[in-house]
Each structure stands twice: as structure tokens, then as C-alpha cells.
Amino acid sequence: MLLGTPFLIRHGASQYADVPLGYFILATLVCFSLYDRSVGGGAGPLALARLMAGFADWTKNEGLFFVPIVVLARLGAVVSIRGWKAC
In the chain, what's the furthest Cα-to-Cα distance? Predict the structure, then answer.
């Protein structure tokens, strides 16, 4: 929905880096959520989440802080829900 709004297209073309960064952060979190909810455990959403986190890292300096934070948060979530062996 966000990608279809004229606001995002207009300001993304104006080289406002916060808008694409916000999109990549949101896409990373959504892909992790889709991976957690998938029944078959397919690696597609997980690979896409890693790709989106990499794009966030590449877009702006704030993305450099996002990647280690999301890795630590994901590690903490998996350890607390599934246990250390699943990690």
C-alpha cells in the first residue's frame, strides 16, 4: 500500500532517503513476520528479509545501526520462543 501512494513516489524521486529507509525497515519486519507465520517453513520470506535489511544498510547510515539491532532482536526472539537449540 505504501509503494502505491503518490507521496512515496514523489518524495522518493526527490532523493529523500528517509522514505526508502523506512520502507526497507518495514519490509524487513514484515518478511520476518511472514516467515514466522509460514507453516512449511519456507526460506523465501527469510531470504527477502535479509535482502531488505541489506538494502536498508545500503540506503543510509542509520541502516548501519538497524542491521545489528534487528539481528540481536531476532536472536532474542527466537531464543525466548523456541529455545537455544532452534537458534
Answer: 47
